[in-house]
Each structure stands twice: as structure tokens, then as C-alpha cells.
Batch of 4 targets.
Target 1
Amino acid sequence: IGHPEIFPLVLTTKTQEIFNCRVDEDVTEENCFKTIKKEDIIQDLETRAHISDFYPVRKVVLEYPGEELLVVFDAKFQYGQNFYIVASEEAKENLVKPPETAEEEKEEDTEEILDPFKPLVPKPWVSLGSEKEVEEESVKDNVTKIKFKISRVRRNFGAPIAFTDKNASHGTDGYVECTSYEDKTFSIKMLEKDVGLQIVPKVRVASTQTKWTYPKNAATQYCPRQLSEEEKAESLSSEKLKEFLTSVHLRVEIALQQNEIMNAFFDDWKALADDKSSSDGKPDVYLKAHQSFTNQQYLKDRTISCVCWHPTISGIIAVSAREQLSYEEQIKLSKKSLLHQSVILLWSFSDPIHPQLILESCEDIYCFQFSPSDPNIIAAGCINGQVVLWDISQHGEKLQNEKPVPEEVVNSDSEATTAAEVATKVSPGVVPSPMQVQQSSTEPPLVKYCAVSSREYSHKKTVTDIQWLPSNFKVSLKIHFSSFYWNNIIQLFCSSILFWDIPATEHQEKPLSRVSDTSKHLDLSWKPLIKISLHERDANTEYGPIRIILRELHYRYKTSGKAKSVSAVKAPAKESPYTEMSSSSSKNLEVLENISTNFFVGNEDGVIVYSDWKMKIDTNSAKPTQKYSLHTETINTLQRSPFFRDTFLSIGGHNLAIWKEGVTNGPILQSSCSAGRYTAGQWSLERPGVFFIGRDDGNIDIWDLLKKTHEPSHFQNISKSVITFISAGTASPKQHFLAVSDNLGVLHVLEICQTLSHPSSNE
């Protein structure tokens, strides 16, 4: 343990007495060595055998080369026991006589051998020529020294001395400053420099590989594997096939609706010429620029908010403008008055420079609509929430350019529409020519509004949509629908839905004067008839509708006496078009039961709500029956198809959807998210499967559902700014227009091509 030639050993008191190595008597800490003969230890091993204390080291004892073994008393238990035995003669000598004593003995021997000290004698110096170099490098003073003698005046010797304080900077003789400066004499320039360079050869690694050509088949012939008739019958009647068809039926149907299945039998070669241009170099689908309207006085730095075509006079289009504000900014500024003049401009195709009529408003207009039964009445909703009415019957001759209407072109299907057309003397489909423009004055007349709603009872926010109810019913306070002749109810909404009535001053059967005279009592005191708020089912949070769709219904009504003929309704040109109109008595009104009052609305959060406007007995708010959260941004378009009464289009944010009444699990068609935002939309008036979408990059997407249902079939750039509104109009059976407005205050009138205006068979 710790030394290869030292083995610890335990010697009992009996063994110590036998070998005369008793502790503190024969051996001590200072005299710890004890030599024991090898023969005595072997004799003890033979006598005591296993009991002997030397039995653990018997092999060491037997192999020991000497006659005597050294046993050392380990008083400090350095090796773990009270004694240890040394197994070699060399180790024995080192322990008994340490190496230090041996070295001292050697030193003593060497000292005796050395010679006695002899003093050193210096040797004479021998010159080798170095003194000459020392003399050359030594500095010698060759300049003659100047001697100075400094003495003091004799009279100052022994004179008393007086010490005073003095600033060193004040005196000129007692202070000298030696400033440091750069001495160019001692500037060192580097004239030579050792630089090590090493040339390294260019190394390029190149490799080559043998090209092994792989074998190719020169020709391959396939032979189909066909099942036998028995195998076919067994496969068709198997339960596994029925379960598979049942499990994938719903997924395949959805994929077919979304146009996600590729036609494996589609002939690409035949379809190469589908999207090519026609023979005249123009594409088959395009929107041709017809005219553009703008005005530096009223439309400069403003955005067009709404566009409407005149219902009966072809070539007349009306636009309204507002400040270029976002929807959030409109809400913040809805209660503030603006300094500029807010108007509605009526343009004619015959004079694209000067407006034909200017309707003055109290505030910026967000939306407006012509009355369907009386086009001379215009209702508008303002940004501050007020409702405004105009009567343009006095300017009907200017708009129609004094051109009479042939009797055979009058449509006899609707009595109210016929009366309006005859009163204004307009022939549908006839565009006024430039020769018919009045030459007497180029300044358009300014028409002031005839009625405006009260600010206290108006909308609290911007009026975002306006709808005229059908002309054959009237809404009472109990929400009963009755037959009525005149279109006298306007429905508008912003954060809630309000019904506005335009009643006569006296409910009696006598001829009425102009609407402006009838509506004088409404100015600044006009109040809504009914207010409807949409709330959550379990909360008081309002939905905040932005767009609305009323369900088209066929209403039956009866009036006293026989119906008037078309010729009897006609009035002279110079008389008022309303001289034959009279308010029906309430006694002749029949309450219509089982009338559907359902409607669709879209709110600012992109939610589509299907609800009922009929009041409940215990509350004055409508509860939504169905809610769809599809769009991520504000609904900007909610429009019913002109061909299908139960189908409508919704646009908001980056996607669009087509809905169908009665389908409660969502839209029947939904587009994927586009890169840009959709800002406006319009159904085609000629083709059921075509609609137009305006984007924020100034492009118009043309969707043709007969060609593609997952993406627009064509697109065309119209403006450099955001498209704000789209409206479709018809001038003649062969001429169809699309009015597109942008954020720069420019109205673009585009002519729709023949491909988009002529429907295919059974479309």
C-alpha cells in the first residue's frame, strides 16, 4: 500500500514477546527498526501455522533473498497497521541509511581530494584593435567654451531681505515658459522596409467520370386488363363499393360545386383558340370606354359615393360626391358640418362637360335613389344621418329635351310606371342627341331640397343604404301591410333600420299639388315612422347594418272603382304630372295577411344576417334568425340577382359569395381570398351568370359563371385609383352600359361588349 516493497503487518503482544519487538520497550517511534532472522520467522510459521502473525506475508518471507528481515514499527499508522515488513535488501538499506547521509559522505570524500586554494594572478592585456573603434565612437568636445562671471552688487551684500507673494504670470523677468513643440530635425522617415513574399502556385482540382448510359425502351405497348362479365357483376353488387360511394358522395358534390375537379377528358388542343382575340384584333370580352364625366368645381379632390341611372330617361345619370374619407373617419365626422357645397349632379350623354341639373344638399351624400313609381322624386341619405328629398318635376322638360313619347312604346304592365313615363314624356331606349341640348343657357339650374329630416330624430351615424318599398302597399304603426297607390315609404339604415313616410297633409280624397308643396311641412321636422334595431340573441349588442335586401313579393290590392286605362292617365305636357294622383282613403285599404317580412342585411363586421322586420309584442327590436360570418371586412355590396329573386350577391373584404334563400348551411358559391380588396359589385342586367367586381387597384373583375366559378374569367383596368361604385344601365336593346366611379371624382361610362350582353341558350 503506497510502496511495492513494504507490506503492512499486525503483530500481537504474544508475537512481540516472542521476537523481542515490544512496543515502547524494544522499539519506539525514534528507534523503530528491528531485524528478525528469516529462520525464526519460518520456524514460527511451521509452529503456529495459520495463527502466526506472519502468515499473510509468508510468501514474501520465503522469497526474501537475505538472512535477516527488517520489521519497522509504524507508530503513526502510515501504512494502516502497527508494523510493516520490508521485502528487499535495497529498500532495507534505504530505510536504515537514507540517501542524504550517503551524499554527505561523498562530499566529505571530495573535499579531501580537492587541491588547496591558490590566488588568481591577472594576465597581461593583449590589444586586438578594438581600442581604435572605441576612440572613433567616443564624443569629444571640440567647441571652445564661453566663460561667464556672475557677481552681485557690492552694496547688496548683507542687506535685509523682504519676501512677498507675487504671481508668476504678472512678472516678465521672473517667469519663463518653455512650451513643447515639434522639432522637424528629429522626424524620422521610413525609407526602406523589409517585406516577405512567397509565391504560391495555382491549384486546380479536376476529376473525370465515365458516363454510363442506361438502357431505354425503344417502344412500349400497353394492354388493358379487363374484367369478365361475372367479375363486373360481382364488383358492382358488392357492399364495399356501396360503402365507398356513400362515404365520398358529399365530398365529390362539394368539389363539383367549387369547380375543384379537373376534367381528364378535356381537349387542350381544341381549347387553344378560346381566349384569343377576334378577327378585328380586339378580345371577345371587353368594356369599351364610351364617355367620362368629371367637374372641377364639385368633384375635384372628392370621391364619388353613389351612381344612379334615371329610371325612364335614357342617357341621364346622376352622381353624388363626398370627402375622401375612410369608413372610420366618416363616423367621426358624421356630426360635423362641412364647409364645401354638397350636391348631386345629373349628367347627359349629349353634353359630358356641363351637368344638366344640380341638386343642392345640406351635407355630403352617401347614397340616393330615384323613386321607382315617380322618377321626379329623389331621396338621399347624408353622412350626418339626415334624409333629404328633392322634386325635379319642374325640370323634366330640360332632361327630356322636349321630345314627345310615342304612345305605342308605353308599357301597360304597371299603371304607376306608365303614368310617370307619360308625365315626363320620355321614350325608353332613346338617347338625346347633341342637337337637342338647350342653347339658351349653359349654366345648369340649381335645385334646392324640398324636405330634410330632423337632426334629433335622424340617424346617429352615416346613412349607408336607402331602399324604396314597393308602390302597392303601406306600412302602419302595427306593421300591417295594406294596399296603396303611391310609393310613399323610404327605408334607410345605418346603425339601425328606420322607416320614413311621406304622407299627405290631409287624408282626404282630393287632388294633390306638387310633392314639394306636400312636403313643406316635413322640412326639419320629418320623423321616422318605425325604428328597428338588430341585437344579438343573448346580448344587447347591435349588429350595425350597412347594406339591406328586401324580399320581392307579389302584393294583391283592390281600389274603389275600375282601374284607369293608359290613355286616361296621360296628362297634358304643361300640366303637373301629379294632378291625377290622389291619396287613397283608409277605408279602401285592405290589410294583407301572410306577407313575408324577411330581409337580409350585412354589417360593418362582414356578417350576413337574415331577419324579420315585424315587431314582436314584447319588444321593439327584431331578433336575427340566421347569422353567417363569412367576410372579414365591411359589407360594401349586397344585391339581389335581377333574374332570380331568391339569389343575391355579397361582397366584403377580399372575397365574395352568392347566397340562396332557403339554403341555411352557407353560400352556394364562395370565392377564395384575392390579393386586393373588393370595393364594389354589380349584377349584369342582361346575363344571369355574369357580374362585375371593382377592386382597390382600379381593375374590374368580370365573372362569367358559365366559364369559371373559382376565379374571374377576365379583368380590365379602368382607373389608377380605387373603384368606389358600379351601376349598370341600358340605353337600347343593343346598347348596354356600365357606370364605374373612382376615388378621384371621375365617372367612367363603359359600353358592355356583345359577349357579355347576350345570354346563351338556357343560361
Note: The chain has a mean pLDDT of 75.
Target 2
Amino acid sequence: KRKADVTVMPDVRERRAKKSRRQVEEWVGQAEEYLLEGVGSTQWKLLVALWAEFEAHVLVQSGSRLQPGSAALRPAKLSIWFSQRPRRWDGGGISDAGEREEFKKSWIRWLGHMQPAARQGKEGEMPPMVSKEVESDLMILKVYGPSGLVVVLVGLKWWANVEDDCWIKAVEDVASC
């Protein structure tokens, strides 16, 4: 007697995981292209590469996706962009110098409020440099997905100015997290 051929359906979870990976790879690629466009700083390119590597690392992990920082403190223009569905990986930015300065202050305040207690700095100033004591506390900043750390990077891109020491310090600070 011959055994009947048994057709085994691919595991549903495996198919969903593949689809999810494709979707993530797509948005990460779009975001990475958007973030790199028009900003030639070496530090910025390194930060974007670190972020893309971080997203790739958590690609297969699951879990809830938190939003970084308080929405009430997020710069208003960034909140408008954040609420768009589907997410647009073009446009945005700030061209007016006065508006850029206000956005910068708002972004720094928002970043400061996201920090663990040990990294809380003075209101409106960049947080103190990352030290060994606070490295483990920084996990609260490592939020993945399209509502995660990428929103912080988009805000940084919008006030990008490679001649602004504060912007360079912010890029280095986020990279160190």
C-alpha cells in the first residue's frame, strides 16, 4: 500500500511574519531614504545607519509599540506629521529661520522630557552626556516601529544645520543612546 501524499499548509504564523518583515523593510527603507536626503553630515549618516540597524534587529520581535515621549510636549508641527496616515516620507521640514529656532527649542524640550531621571538636564538644554550609570535606563528611548525613534530623527532632520553646534550635539546624543 502507498501512503497518501499529505499536503502540509505553511505555518500561518510564518506567513504573517514574512509579510510583516516585508512591510517593515518597506517603511524603514522609505524612512531611511527620506532622512538621508539633503543632510550631508557624517554624524547624521552614522545616526541614520544606527537607527536602521536597530529597526532591522527588532524586525522579528513582537510586542507593543510605544510612542516616544509625551505627545503634549512633541513639537506641534511634528505631531501633525506624526498623525498623518499613511505616513508620508517626503516634505516636512522647516524653511523659516525663526520657526526653525522655535522648533529646535521645542524638540530639545521634548527630548529632555523623554530621558530617564538620571539624564534630566536643565529645561531647554540638551541632556547630560550618556554615562555608564544610565546606559541601562536608556532602554525607554529605544522604541521601534514607525511611531518610535524614527519620529525623533525626523524632528532632528527638520532643523538640520551642520553648522549649528547644538544640532551636531543632538545628533551625537541620540546616536549615543
Note: The helical segments are 12-36, 42-57, 76-83, 97-114, 149-158, 165-176.
Target 3
Amino acid sequence: MTLHLGKGRSLASALVTSLVLALSVLVAPAVTAPAEAATPITVSQAIGQQTGATQTVRGYVVGQPTATSTVVRSGFPSDYALAIADSASQTNTSSMLYVQIPSAFRAQWGLRTNPSLMGKQIDVTGALSAYFSHPGMTSTSAFALAGGTTPTEPPPTGGTSPWDATYYAPAVGRTGTALRTSLHDIIDDNTRLSYDAVWTALKDTDQDPNNTGNVIELYTGRSISKSSNGGSVGNWNREHVWAQSRGGFTTSAGPGTDLHHLRPEDVTVNGTRGNKDFDNGGTAVSGCTDCWTDSDSFEPRDAVKGDVARMLLYMAVRYEGDDGFQDLEMSTVSGSAVPRIGDLDILLQWNSADPVDAFEMRRNDRIHAQWQGNRNPFIDHPEWAAAIWN
């Protein structure tokens, strides 16, 4: 009897165990196969999806954009951008996507350094948003040759300017206040010019690359004779991008004569801009195509919005109040008191939307080599603006 009961218990135990196992199979979660990598979209799809969303796009490298409707296919001026298309032979810029190349990727993916990339099919990942006022990709986070090559990730410290190992060495790899302080210490020992010397300097720094007898006016974009400088209607004069009255400085040697924010400009348009902040909107400015103004702000043409932003950011870092001049600061409020100017949020957008071009780079080089001995770090590293102010 005992043996029988033992066998009964063993059989019951086995049945219970089998039932539990069966139920566990029924309720076990389904195993999901690993998700496959997203399939890259085409350039034409990317052009139609300019929503700011992050996407991977596949296309052929067809050149370097230098303006909204201009893509060069040789003699590349920089490593800052490239254009891709669905066909390697595409020449119509409306069928191209302009891709921003952050500094961390320029050594490997910039066309000045790597012209052999022309015609190669690549995958790029970033935000689908306007670049050079054209369908584009910004905040690019990965580049890869099409066909499975692992995307290139940026080095931890970033920075590929030719000046990184020397001029900017103390700043590379830093962010926030530490970066701002390092940059100030690097750029603050510049040569100070007289206001009269600024006339001569601007004829060099802002020379028209297509006509060496002319300069290019900042806001109008007009090419005008170097000898047409002065204060009369139709002349060009010395525009302080950081307006004197907004910085509390004069035209004595110092911030009022710093070439990094002084540009040739039409006398009348200069007067229209006055000492206003920079912002979007308003009514059209006479004699200045694609310029707008209202009671307290001025909007320049798209092609120089980034230039304006980078000049003002330079001034805010260069002049920190430690050398007898005002501590210049950026503001997010229009009409703010001396020594502030803005609108910072808009200017940071302009810095991203209008990349550094060959004219701006040459200008930075000339000021450094010939006139002041210092550089505008936001031309060499536009991404440092966000590293400090965002």
C-alpha cells in the first residue's frame, strides 16, 4: 500500500510538472528578431522631407556647395560641406542635398583634403534641414562609404582646423566657460589699429576676389571701387557690426577699430541698420536686396547671416572687460542696454544655417597674418558657438 501511494505521488508529481512546462511554453514571450538598420533614403526623398528629423541618406558626392545655387566640382575652397545626389553625374543643384561637415569629420570627409571622394557613393546621417538656404542636412553625426562600412564617429575632442595643434591647442576639447576663457586668452593680445588705418585694411580684407580694384559691401553684396570710400550717398563706409553705441566704445584703437567686426557698407544702408539688434523680419530695405528692418532690428541677406553672427560672437569673447573696455555680452532681448546686443538665439541659428565660405576664411587669414595677429575662432570652428552658448 505504501508502495502504491508512493507510485501515485510520483505519477501526480510528473503530471503537475508536465502541465507547468506546457503552460510555460504557452505564455512565454515571443522572441523578436534583432531590428535591422534603417534603410537609407534617397537624395530626392531627403529633399522632400526637410522637417528636421534625423535620417540616413545615400547619395553620390558631386561637389562642394559655396552658395545657395553654386556647387564647385574642383578647386575646393574648404572641408566644410559637400553635396550629394542620386546620380554621380548630376549638375542641377536643385537635385542635390547640401551636407554640413562638422569639424570632427572634415579631415576624412572634406573635399579640399579628400578630393578623391568625388563620385563616391556615401551614407550620411543627420537632421534634414536647410543648409546654405537650400535643402540640406545639418548636425551630421555619421559618414560612411555605401556598402556596409561602419560609420565614422567623431573623435572625443573634436576639432580639425589647421590651427588646432598650435594656435587653438589650449582650447581644443573644452566646452562652456572653460572654452570661452581659453579662447579669450588666445585672441585678446591683438594689434590695435587706428581708425584711419581701418580704411586701408578693409581694402585688403574685403577685396572682391573677381575684381582686385573693388571691395564687397557686407549687407548689399555690391562690388564697389576701393576708392569710393567716404561719407556721401553712394560711397561705402566702415560699418561696426557691433554698433558703437551698443558697445560703449569709440573709434579710438580698440573694439571700435577691430577688423573682425568692421566691414565695408553702403552709407545709406549703414544708416538704415543704425544700432539695431539683428533679428528676422520687418519691411524691405531700399537698395539692399533680401534685407529687412523694423523699429528695433535688422535682417541681412541670407548669404552673410552667419558672417554677422560669427563677428558678434567673436566680440563677446574677445572683450571681457579685462583690458579697459566694456565687457561685451550677447542678449536675447531686443533693445537691451549697453554693452549688450542680440538676438543671441537668432544669431546662433544664423551661424548654423549660413556656413563659413571662402571669402570669410580668406578675411580671417588676412586679419591674422597682416593686420591684427589674431583670429576669429568661430570662423575656424563654427560649432564652438553652440559649445559655449547652448
Note: The chain has two domains: 43-145, 176-389.
Target 4
Amino acid sequence: MGAQRSGARTRRSTVVAVAAVVSAALAVGPGFAVTPAAPPPDPPAPVTPTTPTAPATATTPATPATPATPATPATPAPTPTKAAVPPFGAFLDSGPLGVARMALLSHWLGGTELKVAHTYLPGERWSDIEGAPGFLDVWARWRRDKADRTLVLNVPMQQHNEDHVSDAGVGWLLRQGAAGAFDEHFRTLAERLVKLRVPDTVIVLGWEMNGATYTHRCGPDPESWKAYWNRIVTTMRAVPGQKFRFDFTPSRGRDAVPWTECYPGDRTVDIIGMDSYDQPTGESFDEQVKEPYGLQQHVDFAKSHGKPISYPEWGLFRNGDNATYMKRMLDWMDEHKPLYNTLTDYCPHGVWQCSANPLSSRIYRSALYDLPVQQVPATPAPATTPAATPTPAATVPLGAKPVAAAEPPDGCSPVDLGEWVEHWLGGKLCVRFDWWSGDR
């Protein structure tokens, strides 16, 4: 701290001394002589400028080497767009389980969406064929959830449809149907479908009619069968608000009768389908294609009539876990683009609910895994030409007895049960009274 104070005093003494000198100079006054300063030197003579010499050309520096352009990284190839597959589904169960399992099957297929639901009306009683209240509700809700979905419904043409009715009995029933005895049942079904807001349901009516299994088979009387089909379609199309599509679906091959003999005509058919399982034993896929009334004839027949095709039922059968059939059938559908197809998925036919077919299961899953699905295209509107008006005498109003023109089979006696009971039975009950005979 002492050194700082000493420095301050020294600066203050210098200032006092300078101030004294200045005061003395001012005291001399104006007579104080001051020797003038020497004049500034003469300016130097101007120098004649000389033409400047051009400067030496500077050496152009070497151009640096152009750096190499870095290689443009290769553009990765775009991921190929997966081709959309034709609309498909599977029969998984007739009731609510069938709807619930569709989401599980879709998950198993990597998210590929099932756009087609397929179920069957029972054929035990007419009340089943009318679409009993509550039976179709869950299917209708599934259909309404998305605009691009399709509901396929197999509809029997006769009650007791799997009760092994004789050819004579079937023929008699077909004639009853052709005369109008069963119109009301199909009108009721149509009204219920419209009320459920599924008026565009695909109706697979009287399927596999060329076989020998069902009571609605064609063989005993093909002409009456065709007339009956036409009558059902005309009745259902008469219901306001309907947009039904009717699918004529025989089984592949000749079976009991050539299915072409049962074709009811273009006016009442919207789709020509085929049920095609891997049978009989030992038959190759090429044989299934080329056989009379086989896969190729089906495609050709539909084309000649201007109709789309479908495969409402297909799957494995007599030849076990036949991976060749599975691959060839998938390829066939990919080539011929059916309106829809629905695999029958229970043993022995299926690949998801049936563990007995691992090879075919792998092929089916691989072919349909994580793929977009096309929408079921709309089929052309039915011909506007009005159907021929049935002969009034042949019409059976609700509650009236069936027409008497159709005779019961030989050895069979009609039983009069009254109008109300006969209405619900769909006609008179025919009983053979020789059932106890030892000759049978």
C-alpha cells in the first residue's frame, strides 16, 4: 500500500512545476521577442514521369487437378408391389363361430383380408330355409361393416334336404315347386335379407344339383327343376330393394347327371360356379381340368354365356394331403379370375382348422400371405325382360292346398293334414303304406 501513495505524490509535483513555467511566460507580455522558425524547404523539382514498364507477366499457377466426382450411390431397387389376389374366403362354421374365425384365419395369413363370408341355411325345415330370425344377424353385421365385402349364402330348394328322399319323391316335389307350392318360403327369405340390409347377397341356390345327395337334386326331373329354379328367382327378385345375385353351382364332373342339362337359362343366373374337391382317388389335376363337365368345360360354358365364374366349395379330399392339387388349384384360380372362391376349411378338406394336411397348408399360406385383395366386382344387372307370368291356375296362394296336378309317386298315398299344416310342410305328406312288406 506505501508504494501506491509515493507514486501519487510524484505525479502531483510535476504538474505544479509545469504550471509555474507557463505562468512566467505569460508575465513577459507582448514585447517578448521570439526567434522565427526556419522556412519550410522548397518543394522538389517535378519529376518527368516515365512510361511505366509493363510488369513481368506473372506465372500462371498450375491449375489444381479437378477432384474426382464421388460415385453416386446406386438407387435401391423399388420394392415390387404385391399383386392383389382375387376375393376369397373360407367356410369355417355356419353360425357365429364362422364369423369369429375369419379374423383368426386372416391373422394366420399375415393380415391378408378375407373379403368373402360363406355360410349355409339349414335344410331340415322350411322355417330354416326362410332364414330363421337370429340366424343370419351376425353374418349381416359382418357384411355391413365394410362396403367391399360379400356374403355368400347357400340356400336349399327343399326341406328334408339330406334325408335320402327317393327319386320318385324328389320328382313329385320338383313339380310341386314348379307349380308355385313353395313360393312363400323364398319370398320370406328375400324380405328378411333386405330387412337385414344385405340385399346384394350371393345366393347359391340348390347347389350340386347334378349329384345324388340332396332332395333338391335335378336328375329325377330336369325340366321341373329348371322351372322351379326360375320360379324361386322370380319370386325373390320381386321383393322391393333386392339386389341378389344367383349362383348356379354344380359339382365338377358328370356325377349323376350332366350339369348342363340342369342349367335354367341366362335370365335367372348371374354367376356360374363349381364345387371342385380333389376326388376321385387317383385322379390328377390335369384330368380334373379335361374330364367331361370338368374345370375347363365350366370356364368355357360360363364364357359362352357371358357369366363370371366362382368356386363356392373346393378343397382336399380323396387324395389326402395333396400339395400338387393345392398348388394347381390356386394357380388355376389365379389364371381364370373367379368372382370369388371359398375354401371348405374342415377335415378332410381344409388347411387351417385341419392339422392332417401340413404340406397343403404350407402352400396355401405361402400363396396368400400378406397380400392385398381385389374387391368383388359387381355383376351386370339382371335382364330387364320380365319373367313369363306363371299360369294363374298353377299358383298356390299362402294357406291354399298345393296343386292337385302333380301326382304322388307310385305306392305313396297323400295324407290330408289340413291346410295350415300342409302350408308349413310345403305340400301334402306322402306316406308309403307298404313299408312293413317283407319284399322291401
Note: Residues 140 and 196 are 6 Å apart (CA to CA).
